[in-house]
Amino acid sequence: MSPSAEARPTSAARARLLGTATKIFYAEGIHSVGIDRITAEAQVTRATLYRHFAGKEDLVLAYLDQADRGIREQVAAAVGSTPSAAGQVRAVARSIVDGIRSPGFRGCAFLNAVAEYPDPAHPVHRAVLAHRQWFLDTVTELLARVGDEPGGPADAAGRHLVMLRDGAMAAGCLFDPELVSETFLHGVEGVLREVSAAAPAEG
């Protein structure tokens, strides 16, 4: 059998396993879901799962990696939608709000995961921190462009925006998502005003 012929069913089985795990992990949590449940719903054998993933932890890391790539693509699309630095921050905020307003929203996949893996040395915990550092760096850089001044006020503003986002993601599955979204967007405008006001005057 050729390598390409072997790869096709392997790839399909892996995608089905990851898709099933993603749906269940996000909706119900990670520790509450066993391998038997995932293989049953994905309609594969345990042997097939272990051909693609070393174990459940490896599957969880793949789930988070997929979520990370999806958010990076979402942010890149938002940033690419407008040349204005402030407009890019607003576009990123609107993309977050789109998620909060979407059916089946259950909060931030990364905050949910790290609550189940509190050990800072655990690979899942480290994966969450790496994603969060990327997001903080990204929004801080965007805010620095708004103020036309690298560092300084943008560093604090970036942390502020991330905290606003965390609060909105947590509240979005507990309270009225429209009200949460409106409050979050209002907060982002406040961060933008703060950074703009701190920018050095021209002349």
Automatic annotation (TrEMBL):
It holds the Pfam family TetR_N. The keyword Ribonucleoprotein does not apply. Residues 34-53 bind DNA. It comes from the Bacteria. Keywords: DNA-binding, Transcription, Transcription regulation. This is TetR family transcriptional regulator. InterPro entries: Homeodomain-like_sf, HTH_TetR, Tet_transcr_reg_TetR-rel_C_sf. Residues 11-71 form the HTH tetR-type domain.
